[in-house]
Amino acid sequence: MTNLWEDLETGPNAPEEIYAVVECLKGDRNKYEYDKDIPGVMLDRVLHSNVHYPGDYGFIPQSYYDDEDPFDVLVLVEDSTFPGCVIEVRPVGLMKMDDDGEQDDKVIAVPIEDPRFDHIEDVDDITQQQKDEIDEFFQTYKNLEEGKEVETQGWEDKQSALDAIEHAQDLYNENFA
């Protein structure tokens, strides 16, 4: 069975075009996580706060980030896909975030195969309302979980996202290749 974290390449033209493996769905409160030992998607928990994911959320294959997890990616979509779906995406920005003292940044990306997002090339092309909703979600989604503290730290441009993806690829290669 294919392991989507280890066996799938980072993307067809990384870091400019990458794969996003979907774990959590836009509009959902279920927090799914890919378990590489199964391999498969498992329900980790239901979010304690009354919020829902603002896009399809998952990870980038063959990546490893400073929080010692695969690098997170939030894909802006009109309609949710399904857990385990692989989407070819274009990174457009980076949301900086601290999660319980660990750097837990999020790549923001758009689907390559959806013309509704062709105009989004960089973080400044995302509406302020959408950025505010994403920020609000990550700022509050762990509020009702005991002892969890999250701090969003602002937005960075596409080049920062590309640099962070390369960093995550290097960390993966150092630790797992």
From TrEMBL:
GO cellular component, one term: cytoplasm
Compartment annotation: Cytoplasm
Pfam family, one: Pyrophosphatase
Superkingdom field: Archaea
Record-listed Mg(2+) 1 binding positions: D67, D72, D104
Transmembrane segments: none
Chief location bin: cytoplasm
Names of the cofactor(s): Mg(2+)
Gene Ontology MF terms in the entry: inorganic diphosphate phosphatase activity; magnesium ion binding
Xref: InterPro entries: Pyrophosphatase, Pyrophosphatase_sf
Assigned EC number: 3.6.1.1
Listed CDD domains: pyrophosphatase
Catalytic activity: diphosphate + H2O = 2 phosphate + H(+)
Annotated Mg(2+) 2 binding sites: D72
Swiss-Prot/TrEMBL keywords: Cytoplasm, Hydrolase, Magnesium, Metal-binding
GO biological processes: phosphate-containing compound metabolic process
Keyword Cytoplasm on entry: yes
HAMAP family (alphabetical): Inorganic_PPase
Family: Belongs to the PPase family.
Function: Catalyzes the hydrolysis of inorganic pyrophosphate (PPi) forming two phosphate ions.
Subunit structure: Homohexamer.
PANTHER family for the chain: INORGANIC PYROPHOSPHATASE
Protein name, UniProt field: Inorganic pyrophosphatase
Species annotation: Haladaptatus litoreus
UniProt lineage: Archaea, Methanobacteriati, Methanobacteriota, Stenosarchaea group, Halobacteria
